[in-house]
Each structure stands twice: as C-alpha cells, then as structure tokens.
Amino acid sequence: MADRLTNLFPFWLLLIGAIALRWPQIFIGLNQGNLPVLILTLVMLGMGLTLSLDDFQRVSRLPRAVLTGFCAQYLIMPFLGWAIGAALQLPTALAVGLILVGTCPGGTASNLITYIARADVALSVVMTLASTLAAVVMTPLLTQFLAGAYVPVNGWLLFAQTLQVVILPVAIGVALNRWTPRLVRQVLPIAPLLSVVGICLICAATFSANAEAIVQQGRQMLLGVFLLHSLGFALGFGFAKLFGYSQAIARTIAIEVGMQNSGLAIILARQAFPLLPLAAAIGAISGVMHSLVGSFLAVIWRSQAQRQSEAVQPHNSLTM
C-alpha cells in the first residue's frame, strides 16, 4: 500500500499545489519559523536510513559512470539555469531561483523514476549519494558564481545551510542504519512515503506563501522550469551517449541530471534570499515539473524496454 501511494508522487504534488494556490490559508501555518527546514531535515534523514557503508564502497566500483553523471549534473544544470534566465530575460527572483535549482544535487525521487523506467537503480542511488555529498561545496560555489551577477550571494551561509540540512541528516541516517538495524528495518517500508509527504508539505508551504505572485507570473515560471528540466533530461542522455554508455545507464544519468533536489532549493532560497520569495517558488514548481516530465519519460522508456525484452525472448527460444 505504501509503495502504491509513493508511486503517485507527481499526482500528490499536483494536488497539494493546486489546493495551496486555491486556498493558501490551509498551509500558511507551515511557513512559521524553521518548520520547513525541519521537514527537509527529516526527509534527508530518511534518505540516510536507506544507505549503508556498502553503498559508499560501491562508488569505487562504478567510478567511470558515477564520474560521468557527476560531471553532467554539475556542468549541465547550473549553466542551463543561468542560460534560460538570461535568454528569457527573467526577473531577478526567477533567474536566481532557476540557478539555485540547477546547482542543487539530484533528487531522491530520481531513484523511484529510475526504477519505473527499468534503468540502473543501483547506479541511480550511488549518483544521488555522490551529488548530495558534493552539494555542500558545489551548490554554494556555483550559486555564488552564476547568481552573483543578479544579487549578492553569501557562499558561506549557503555552505552552512547545505551542511545542516543535507550532510548531517544523511550521516545520522547512515549511523542509525549501522548501529540500530532492527529499528531501521521497521521504519524503512514507510520511509519513502514519509519523504513524499515531506516534500509535498514544503512545496505547499511555498505555494501558499506566494500564491498571488505565482498566479500572476505563472507563465514565465512554468516556461523557465519546463525548459530547465526538459533540456536537463535531454542533455543528460546525450552526454551519456557521447561517452558510449548503454541505454540503461544513459537513461539513469538523464534522470539524475533532469531531477533536482527541489526541497533543498526551496529551503536554501528561503534562507539565503529572503527578499526574493519567488526564488523559493521556482523550487516548488520545479518539484512538480521534474516529477511530471520524469514520470512521462519513465513510462516511455519502460514500454521500450518491455518491447525489447519481448523481442529478444522469442529469438532466444528459437535458438535453444
């Protein structure tokens, strides 16, 4: 049951986003204090619970594919966010929001989309882990470099925030998995669903706080975010094929590049750019958009993989 509800992640995001825009008063209380930060911290803790020391060791056994995906993640998306903002001549808040989304690591939902697409789930998990750990340095540096032309960016503040809501919760989760495995086994079945609920609540809080402005500038925001993620998927796939990877690995890298940790983008925008509330709204729209585009591609790729499998089976049976 929990798995079925988790697989409906794009639907829940669309539903709660629509409710938050129509009746913002329902979720406005979620914007109080550090509640959104706490929610994201718990989401990242849930990610940490799914990891073990063996997962870190697997990085060394998949060096080339992981490195390719890592380079694609931090070369394509940040500069794509900057380029789209410049090309569309977006207002400062929207341009900064796109850049911040682009500089964030791969989202945990990418592992689910990879599974649906019949791509390489193990590689997806390792790539998400690698980009997440590197985000503590890469996200502040790239945001300061690319968004500095729009507004002053405090790189050290972003560094501290990323450390707080990404590295520490993941490390605690890994430690709990190592030292309290029985407790973790009881929590794991519902951990993905709780993460989905957490991201939905963060997005709802952002939508409710900026409902009027989102409605007024919705077209620009939707276009910018759609281009960011659509081109991210396409360029990520092309980047992987350029290095000669198989369809499964290329699809995995495309998903990792095209799907960002939008929850992190929202929290960082709220804290680092408090005078640009629509920068956080870009992150909320990103969470919906990359889930929809990723799900659409996953269904197409899954059907292609199934057709290829069916085409191979009769051939094998004739040669036996």
From TrEMBL:
Membrane topology: Multi-pass membrane protein
GO cellular component, as recorded: membrane
Main location: membrane
UniProt xrefs under Gene3D superfamilies: 1.20.1530.20
Domain of life: Bacteria
Residue stretches spanning the membrane: 34-53, 65-84, 90-109, 121-143, 155-176, 188-209, 221-240, 252-273, 279-301
UniProt cross-references to Pfam families, sorted A to Z: SBF (PF01758)
Entry keyword set: Membrane, Transmembrane, Transmembrane helix
Subcellular location: Membrane
Protein known as: Na+-dependent transporter-like
Upper classification of the organism: Bacteria, Bacillati, Cyanobacteriota, Cyanophyceae, Synechococcales
